[in-house]
Amino acid sequence: MIENLGNIGRVPELRRRVLFTLGMLAVYRVGVAIPTPGINGQALSDFFQAAQQTVFGMVNLFSGGALERFSIFALGIMPYISASIILQLMTLVVPYLEQLKKEGEQGQKKITQYTRYGTVLLSLVQGFFISLGLEQITTPSGASVVFHPGWSFRLMTILTLTSGTAFIMWLGEQMSERGIGNGISIIIFAGIVAALPSALTATFDYTRQGELGPLVLLLLAILMVAVVAIIVYVERGQRRIPVQYAKRVVGRKQYGGQSTHLPLKVNTAGVIPPIFASSLLIFPATIAQFAPYPIFQDMASYLNPGAWVYNLIYVAAIVFFCYFYTAIQFNPQDVAENLQKYGGFVPGIRPGKRTADYIDRILTRITLGGAIYLAVVCVLPTFLISRFNVPFFFGGTALLIVVGVAIDTVAQMQAHLIQRSYEGFMGKGKVRGRG
Q1: Cα separations (Å) of 85 from 68, 78, 100, 176, 366?
Q2: Which residues contact 92 (CB under 8 A, 6 or more apart)?
Q3: Burial 294-316 (b: 16+ CB within 10 A, else e)
């Protein structure tokens, strides 16, 4: 695989795409290091040291450390994801949006435009509550996080954070269009990977201080390798439905008659369900944490990662979005119609509606297994933190994104190389994507 990485440079289009993606990621990481004006950086760092195992720790992980520094990218890409969720759910109940969805590319452009407007609106709301909450935060030594509280600071913070999120959204779209892979996922991937060195350093510090024993550290390492192997195995898992094509004679030529299969992914929705579930929980939890009102503080305590209410809602949301996104991505009726149109059929099943019902029944069953797998992986950080005092979020959405995005990106590079008749990354083998 490493030897074949040199093939990237031999394909001009792929080389340009990879370099463009790396350039956009470099711009993103520079923005993460630029602080928002008016913030006492040291006081904010002291505050986050005590808040790593709350919702702030998860938000900070997805933003690549931008929230901890309170940089211009502190909100990250989560408002965009929340807006996307809202628009997709609204397409089920709003006839106008449902019609747009059926109009193809032009309708999708309009929905994307509405998603951008929603992202800006959510960023404005979230930025306002964050600016209010920052004015209330003081460190144990009595230092204030905000140098000069007031409406000038609030308006500047709202404008800065909203502009930062809009810029990240633009970066992601440019990476998807002109780079390699899905831009939004790669931005989240980059933020998570950037946090790994500090997480490993904190783990070894805990070991030196005696808070994590050597045996526990060894068990954690084995568990991490096992979890990654399970994720790779399940993400590439398929349920193959046999398909037979009838023989057709056109002129003097005979077509069809071959046997093939219809692959159904065990986890058709990929990392979308945990991303959506996390985003829906993070948005109100962040507002609740920063809002200076007792009722919001009570709500925040229930929405902290590890709280039973949080885990219950999180698991339920993952299961819901697994079925919801699978239904959006895969339509058994369309598949059955296409099979019938080209003379294909599932042995023992009548073409048409019976085939659609059969595919839908199998898809429903394997999606349940995929949803349970996602839920177990996503609650893993809570277990590790509570039982072993692990100082970072290992597992969950973060690990799924890292593994899933890596698989998909390598698969896309593999496809580019195969199109140009070069050997792929895995020699004679192939890297299969998740979707």
Answers
A1: 26, 11, 16, 19, 23
A2: 98
A3: eebeebbeebbbebeebbebbbe
**Count of structural domains within the chain:** 1
> Domain containing 27: what range?
3-419
**pLDDT per residue as tens digits for the range 107-128:** 888 888 999 999 999 999 888 8
What the block records as the tokens of 412 is 């896309």
Residue 427 inside a domain? The answer is no
Asked, for residue 356, whether it belongs to a domain, the answer is yes
Which segments of 220-376 are extended strands (E)? Answer: 238-245, 248-250, 253-255, 259-265, 344-345
> Three-class SS of residue 268?
coil
406 burial level (CB within 10 Å; 0-12, 13-18, 19+)? middle
Q: Which residue type does 245 have?
A: Y
Q: Give one DSSP letter per residue of 14-64, joined into a string.
A: HHHHHHHHHHHHHHHHHHHTSBPTTB-HHHHHHHHHT-TTSHHHHHHHHTT
Q: Would 424 be classed as within a structural domain?
A: no
* Domain of residue 286, CATH code: 1.10.3370.10
Residue pair 219/383 in contact by the 8 Å Cβ criterion: no
- CA 72 – CA 157 distance, rounded (Å): 9
The alpha carbons of the chain give a radius of gyration, in whole angstroms, of 24
As a residue count, the chain comes to 435
138 falls within a domain:
yes
Q: What is the pLDDT of residues 378-424, one digit of tens each?
A: 887 666 666 666 655 555 667 777 887 888 788 788 777 776 655 55
